[in-house]
Amino acid sequence: MAQKGCCRSAGRKMSQSDSVICTGPDLEDSLIFLAGTSTCSTLAEEPCGGVAKRIFDTSDLSWTPDFDSFGRHAIPVIDEGRFTLDHVLRPFARGSKAQIEILLDHAAGDMKILAKRFPCDYLQDDSASFHHSNPQSAEDPWTEIFLGLVLGKQRASREQDVVPVVPSFGVYRDLQDDVLLLMEWSPGGDLFEISSSLGAPGPEREETATQLLCALLEAVTRLHCKGIAHGNICAENAILRVVGAEVEVVLIDFAMAVHDTDLSATMGPRGSLMYRAPETVGDNAIYDARAADLFACGVVGYVLATGTYPWQSTAGDCKAFAYVQKNGPKKFFDKRTITMGTSKVPVSQVLSARLQSILAPLLDMNPAERRVLWH
């Protein structure tokens, strides 16, 4: 399914003549973003005669993954002699059940690749046995492995209309029966890291933030067109991928993803409290997972533009979010302040009216009203 994006710079080759420079803490080189041509729009701004497309009417049902038959038995054993551990990027730790490693692929000239290692005793044999052992878990590592493999291999093979994800080189078992998901090593940093390096809130920061948000929205919308919702959109789960002169935002970590089912009738908590859409909160909540993804994108956009979170949680006693629920995003932008030098300035005076008109529909409390305008 061909699809137009709200951000012309996503995946396009860029030149120094029309760019601003953004450097993140983990980048060796400057990252180039197209400046002055962000075309993400809302109903208030339709420069190309765009039409607001609801998130509920674009589903590519031809993509039918066979998840039920996927398990440990389907995973081949890795060629131990082909790979050498270079270093551990993120070790096993409380709250993190997988280890992130950088391997050297000797068959590819010692190219560095990323391996996400899932230990045997945690993973179990398949999704059903995992949930039997972890009945309260909101995550499913088998979903992460399966979607990372399927979407990532589509990307690696350069198929048309692919979801912007990290290219995958396959999934394997080692001699300890741990499972390793092998992916392209993309050291560009995640959006949270990049956000910390964008400078003070203002027009220059906003230009880059808008580009990143538009690229994220394009990635998420393409995912939805495959009949998949991410379930855990946050600044840490979107990374910058740089290949030559091309720069794009790609999605990672599909452990909370919803797929192969009716996305409009999703149940169960997903995502972190700062990004969680209000309709998803509650033991018996039934919600559209695509609308919840868009809400989380709005939070990411706010973080990128301001360098701060809009609230601490969308559940429980959070005064900032309670104000949004009562008064809406636009009045929240008038009320909420951020520090500029020695002064506290309302967000509505820091962000342009245009960016506010992009963020407000994403952060709408009514999930049926959340939208992105494509042109």
TrEMBL record:
GO terms for molecular function: ATP binding; protein serine/threonine kinase activity. Residues 86-375 form the Protein kinase domain. It comes from the Eukaryota. It holds the Pfam family Pkinase. Keywords: ATP-binding, Nucleotide-binding. GO terms for cellular component: cytoplasm. One of its GO terms (biological process) is intracellular signal transduction. PROSITE patterns: PROTEIN_KINASE_DOM. PANTHER family: MAP/MICROTUBULE AFFINITY-REGULATING KINASE, MATERNAL EMBRYONIC LEUCINE ZIPPER KINASE. This is Cdr1 protein.
